[in-house]
C-alpha cells in the first residue's frame, strides 16, 4: 500500500510565517522573527512638513529622520537662499549657488511636489494638488502668440506710446513671472494667465485659468504629526496693476526673470530708432519698498550698471536711473537710526533717488502712478513691500489667527492653537501640530519675519521631535526662546551695515561680515564653495550677462 506523506513541519512553519507577514502588512506592522515567537514592531509615525523654506529646511537638517516616516510637501523642489537673490538677479552670483535641492537631503525623506489646498486637523488629512499643471506648450520667443509663422513686427505708428517695447516688436516680455493665484496677494483666487507674463519656455496657453487645469487632480495625504511652514506671500495692499505689471524678488524664478528684464531694457534702449525720452523710460528702474530686500537690490543694480553694463552700453548708462519709492520717511527703518542714515547718504552719493513719503496709487504697463509725483515711466518695477498670509492660511478656519495679519497663532512651544471657544476664553493647542516660519507667530510675541527667526524655530522643533529637550514642563517640551543675532544689509561697492545686539558696523568691515555670514549660512558645502567662487570669478572676469 502506498501512503502519501503530509507536508513536513518546516514547510508548515514557513507557510504560517508568510501568512503572518501578509496580515502584518495589511494592518501596518512589520514582524521580526525571534525563534518560535514573533514580536510586532510598531509602524513609525508619519511626520508631514509643509514647505521648503528656512524653517522647514532647518528642521529637516537637524531632525533625526530615522524616528519618523518623514514627508515634505512643497511647490518648490528646492530651497532658495533669499538673502542672495538680489546678487543672483544682477549677475553677481549664478542661480545654482542660491539653491539647495530638497530631494536627497536624507535617504529616508519622501518629497511630494505639490500645493497644500486644505488642512483637516480633525481627521488628520491634507488635500494636495500637484504643483505642475498637466499640460505644457513650447513658446518660441521668435513667434507671435498663436501664430504659425515668424513674428510680424508691428509698425512704430501702431505701437501704443506708453507701453514698453520688447525684442519682438511688441510691448511685452516673456520673462515676467505669470500672476499665479498662489504667488501674490489678491482678493480673488482665480487668475487668468496673461500671455505677456510667461516664465521661460514652458508656459500655459494664454487665457487658460489655473483652476481649470487643477480640477480633479487633488489627492489626500494622512499624517500623525504635522509641521506647517508654508511661508507668506508678497503683499500688494490691493494696489491696482501690481500683479500684472510688477516684478517680485522672493524666489529664484523671480531673480531670473528680473535679470532677463534688466538686460532686455538695455538691449532695446540701444536701438538707433528710439528717442532719448523712450530710452530714459526703458532705463528707469523703480523699487517700491525701502526695506532690506528693496535696498539691497537697488545697491546691486547700481553696481551692475556702473561696472559691466557701463562697459557694454557706454552711451546708454548715463540715461539710466534707479529710484526707491517708500511711504515712510526713511529706508531700512528696522536698523539703528545711525545705520539707516549711513545707508541713505551712501545711496545719495551713488545717485540712487529716494522718493520717500510717497503713496502708490496704481501700476500700469510701463507707468507707476504715485502721489504727489503723478505718472513715472519705468522699464522695470520691483515690488518689495512686505508679506501677507497665504490663501491656505486665510482659508483654514480650524486654527487661531492673529486678527491684524491673519497669520496662524502658536503657543510658546510652537504648537498650533485652536480658536477660543468663546470671547475671552483661553485657547488650547492642537496635539501634534506645529507652526514655524513666516506663516505663524507666537501669541503675544511679535517676532520679525526673518530667516533668522524661522531657522531658530526649525532647529528648536527638531530638538523637540528628536526627544532631546529637557523635561522642564509638564508636556516635556521647553519654551522656544529667540536669540537675536542682529541684522545685516549689503549696500554695494564693498559696503554694508551690521546691527547686532553687541556692536554696530558699517562700511568695509560690515561688508566682510555680511559676505562671511551668508557664505557660512549656505546649507551645503557645495554652495559654501560656489558662492565665494562666483564672487571671485566675476570680480576678475566680469559678470555673465547673456540672456537665455
TrEMBL record:
<feature type="domain" description="FAD/NAD(P)-binding">
    <location>
        <begin position="46"/>
        <end position="458"/>
    </location>
</feature>
<dbReference type="InterPro" id="IPR045024">
    <property type="entry name" value="NDH-2"/>
</dbReference>
<dbReference type="InterPro" id="IPR023753">
    <property type="entry name" value="FAD/NAD-binding_dom"/>
</dbReference>
<comment type="similarity">
    <text>Belongs to the NADH dehydrogenase family.</text>
</comment>
<protein>
    <submittedName>
        <fullName>FAD/NAD(P)-binding domain-containing protein</fullName>
    </submittedName>
</protein>
<feature type="domain" description="External alternative NADH-ubiquinone oxidoreductase-like C-terminal">
    <location>
        <begin position="485"/>
        <end position="544"/>
    </location>
</feature>
<dbReference type="InterPro" id="IPR054585">
    <property type="entry name" value="NDH2-like_C"/>
</dbReference>
<dbReference type="Pfam" id="PF07992">
    <property type="entry name" value="Pyr_redox_2"/>
</dbReference>
<keyword id="KW-0274">FAD</keyword>
<keyword id="KW-0520">NAD</keyword>
<dbReference type="Pfam" id="PF22366">
    <property type="entry name" value="NDH2_C"/>
</dbReference>
<dbReference type="GO" id="GO:0003954">
    <property type="term" value="F:NADH dehydrogenase activity"/>
</dbReference>
<dbReference type="GO" id="GO:0005739">
    <property type="term" value="C:mitochondrion"/>
</dbReference>
<keyword id="KW-0285">Flavoprotein</keyword>
<feature type="region of interest" description="Disordered">
    <location>
        <begin position="146"/>
        <end position="211"/>
    </location>
</feature>
<dbReference type="InterPro" id="IPR036188">
    <property type="entry name" value="FAD/NAD-bd_sf"/>
</dbReference>
<keyword id="KW-0560">Oxidoreductase</keyword>
Amino acid at each position: 500500500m502506498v501512503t502519501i506523506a503530509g507536508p513536513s513541519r518546516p514547510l508548515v512553519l514557513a507557510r504560517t510565517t508568510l501568512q503572518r507577514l501578509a496580515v502584518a502588512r495589511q494592518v501596518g506592522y512589520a514582524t521580526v522573527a525571534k525563534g518560535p515567537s514573533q514580536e510586532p514592531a510598531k509602524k513609525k509615525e508619519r511626520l508631514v512638513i509643509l514647505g521648503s523654506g528656512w524653517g522647514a529646511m532647518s528642521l529637516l537638517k537637524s531632525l533625526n529622520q530615522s524616528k519618523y516616516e518623514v514627508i515634505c510637501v512643497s511647490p518648490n523642489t528646492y530651497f532658495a537662499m533669499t538673502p542672495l537673490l538680489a546678487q543672483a538677479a544682477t549677475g553677481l552670483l549664478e542661480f545654482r549657488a542660491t539653491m539647495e535641492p530638497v530631494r536627497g537631503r536624507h535617504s529616508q525623506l519622501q518629497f511630494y511636489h505639490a500645493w497644500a489646498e486644505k488642512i483637516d486637523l480633525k481627521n488628520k488629512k491634507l488635500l494636495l494638488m500637484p504643483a505642475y499643471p498637466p499640460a505644457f506648450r513650447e513658446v518660441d520667443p521668435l513667434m507671435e502668440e498663436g501664430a504659425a509663422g515668424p513674428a510680424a513686427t508691428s509698425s512704430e505708428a501702431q505701437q501704443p506710446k506708453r507701453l514698453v517695447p520688447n525684442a519682438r516688436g511688441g510691448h511685452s516680455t516673456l520673462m515676467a513671472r505669470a500672476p499665479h493665484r498662489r504667488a501674490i496677494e489678491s482678493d480673488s483666487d482665480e487668475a487668468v494667465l496673461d500671455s505677456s507674463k510667461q516664465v521661460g519656455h514652458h508656459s500655459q496657453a494664454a487665457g487658460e485659468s489655473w483652476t481649470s487645469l487643477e480640477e480633479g487632480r487633488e489627492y489626500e495625504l494622512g499624517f500623525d504629526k504635522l509641521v506647517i511652514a508654508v511661508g507668506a506671500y508678497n503683499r500688494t495692499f490691493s494696489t491696482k496693476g501690481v500683479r500684472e505689471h510688477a516684478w517680485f524678488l522672493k524666489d529664484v524664478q523671480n531673480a531670473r526673470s528680473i535679470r532677463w528684464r534688466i538686460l532686455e531694457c538695455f538691449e532695446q534702449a540701444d536701438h538707433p530708432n528710439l528717442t532719448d525720452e523712450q530710452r530714459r523710460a526703458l532705463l528707469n528702474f523703480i523699487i517700491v519698498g525701502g526695506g532690506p530686500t528693496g535696498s539691497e537690490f537697488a545697491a546691486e543694480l547700481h553696481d551692475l550698471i556702473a561696472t559691466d553694463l557701463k562697459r557694454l552700453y557706454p552711451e546708454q548708462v548715463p540715461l539710466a536711473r534707479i529710484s526707491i519709492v517708500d511711504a515712510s520717511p526713511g529706508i531700512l527703518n528696522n536698523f539703528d537710526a545711525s545705520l539707516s542714515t549711513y545707508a541713505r547718504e551712501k545711496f545719495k552719493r551713488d545717485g540712487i533717488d529716494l522718493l520717500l513719503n510717497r503713496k502708490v496709487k496704481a501700476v500700469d504697463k510701463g507707468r507707476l502712478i504715485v502721489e504727489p509725483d503723478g505718472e513715472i515711466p519705468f522699464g522695470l518695477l520691483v515690488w518689495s513691500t512686505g508679506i501677507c498670509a497665504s490663501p491656505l492660511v486665510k482659508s483654514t478656519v480650524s486654527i487661531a489667527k492673529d486678527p491684524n495679519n491673519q497669520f496662524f497663532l502658536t503657543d510658546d512651544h510652537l504648537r498650533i492653537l485652536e480658536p477660543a471657544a468663546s470671547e475671552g476664553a483661553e485657547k488650547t493647542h492642537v496635539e501634534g501640530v506645529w507652526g514655524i516660519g513666516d506663516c505663524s507667530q507666537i501669541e503675544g510675541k511679535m517676532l520679525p519675519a526673518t530667516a533668522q527667526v524661522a531657522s531658530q524655530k526649525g532647529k528648536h522643533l527638531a530638538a523637540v521631535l528628536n526627544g532631546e529637550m529637557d523635561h522642564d514642563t509638564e508636556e516635556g517640551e521647553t519654551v522656544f526662546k529667540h536669540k537675536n543675532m542682529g541684522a545685516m544689509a549689503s549696500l554695494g561697492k564693498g559696503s554694508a551695515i551690521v546691527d547686532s545686539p553687541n556692536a554696530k558696523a558699517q562700511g568695509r568691515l560690515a561688508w566682510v561680515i555680511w559676505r562671511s555670514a551668508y557664505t557660512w549660512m549656505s546649507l551645503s558645502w557645495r554652495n559654501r564653495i560656489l558662492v565665494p567662487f562666483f564672487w571671485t570669478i566675476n570680480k576678475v572676469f566680469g559678470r555673465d550677462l547673456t540672456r537665455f
